[in-house]
């Protein structure tokens, strides 16, 4: 019975997303245009070199294909949602619901994301196969990729939830949300593979959570990492899942107590 509440919440959010199908269609075409621009750019880069930083032209296209797919899965708008709730003074309404506010918002966001993932991923992959041929990934890598991507999603949702909680201390949470989302996308390898970054920068990124949202799952899927690198990466990913989950719990708990004390 307890899980039925969450499943129903996912269903309602899923159906609400269908009602806004024009936004869904527009975002799909924007994604296609972005990918086409990336393909043209990297075609020029690879004009004189068959291999650049360990990537062939086909491999870099596969990287950006899955970066696009992962973006649909984990580039959450949860930060905007929680900041709007706080700024509009609606947080007390959510506190009256039969589940915790964070759990409610996360499952609501999963429902919103699910339709994007199912529809867009299918079309992106089909178009890639038509224009560029096979993707070249094994079944074992796909299964491991899915497992790792689930942890990436948890990292993403908690990270963006923390970003949204900045609304407790500032009136400009929307601007902070936009800026941090772009920064996270860059540091995660969503705009350019992390292997293209300077070595000293890569060492810093290796201990931060961002890499484990985009770059790490894609490199696991495409077979660019050895077994020990995968095991080590999963370990770091799991640590960040725990750390960010705890941080969101503590932050939200403190914020709710503060709001109650001032009568919000």
Q: Which tags fit this structure?
A:
globular, two-stranded antiparallel ribbon, about 260 residues, single chain, about 75% helix
Short description:
With 264 residues, this protein is mainly alpha-helical. It contains 11 helices and 2 strands.
Summarize the structure in words:
The chain is globular. Strands 1-2 form a two-stranded antiparallel ribbon. The longest helix has 36 residues, at 227-262. It has eleven helices and two strands, in the order H-H-E-E-H-H-H-H-H-H-H-H-H. A hairpin with a 2-residue loop joins strand 1 (51-52) and strand 2. It has one domain (2-262). With 264 residues, the chain is mainly α.
- Give average pLDDT, whole number: 80
What order do the SSEs take from the amino end to the carboxyl end, as H and E? HHEEHHHHHHHHH
Helix segment tally: 11
- How does the major sheet shape up? 2 strands, antiparallel
Helix-strand makeup class: mainly alpha
Identify the strand order in the major beta sheet. Answer: 1-2
Helix content: over 70%
Strand content: under 5%
Distance between the termini: 32 Å
Unreliable segments (pLDDT under 50, ≥5 consecutive)? none
Our Rg estimate from Cα atoms comes to 20 Å
How many independent structural domains? 1
Give a count of the beta strands, DSSP E runs of length 2 or more. 2
SSE diagram, text form:
Blueprint: H1 2-19, H2 21-45, E1 51-52, E2 55-56, H3 57-74, H4 78-87, H5 91-95, H6 101-132, H7 139-164, H8 173-187, H9 199-205, H10 215-221, H11 227-262
Antiparallel strand pairs: 1-2
Helix pairs in contact: 1-6, 2-3, 3-6, 4-7, 7-10, 7-11
């Amino acid at each position: 019975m307890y899980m039925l509440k969450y499943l129903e919440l996912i269903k309602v959010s899923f159906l609400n997303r269908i009602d806004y199908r024009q936004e869904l269609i527009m975002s799909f075409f924007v994604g296609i245009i972005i990918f086409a621009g990336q393909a043209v750019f990297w075609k020029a880069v690879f004009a004189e070199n068959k291999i650049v930083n360990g990537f062939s032209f086909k491999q870099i296209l596969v990287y950006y294909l899955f970066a696009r797919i992962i973006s649909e899965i984990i580039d959450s708008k949860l930060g905007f949602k929680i900041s709007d709730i706080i700024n509009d003074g609606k947080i007390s309404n959510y506190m009256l619901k039969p589940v915790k506010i964070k759990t409610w918002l996360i499952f609501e966001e999963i429902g919103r994301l699910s339709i994007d993932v199912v529809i867009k991923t299918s079309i992106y992959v089909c178009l890639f196969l038509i224009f560029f041929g096979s993707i070249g990934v094994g079944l074992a890598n796909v299964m491991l990729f899915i497992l790792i991507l689930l942890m990436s999603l948890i990292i993403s949702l908690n990270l963006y939830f923390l970003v949204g909680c900045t609304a407790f201390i500032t009136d400009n949470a929307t601007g902070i949300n936009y800026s941090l989302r772009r920064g996270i996308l860059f540091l995660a390898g969503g705009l350019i593979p992390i292997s293209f970054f300077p070595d000293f920068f890569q060492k810093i990124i290796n201990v931060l959570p961002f890499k484990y949202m985009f770059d790490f799952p894609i490199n696991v899927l495409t077979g660019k990492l050895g077994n020990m690198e995968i095991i080590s990466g999963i370990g770091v990913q799991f640590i960040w899942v725990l750390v960010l989950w705890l941080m969101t719990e503590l932050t939200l708990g403190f914020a709710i107590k503060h709001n109650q004390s001032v009568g919000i």
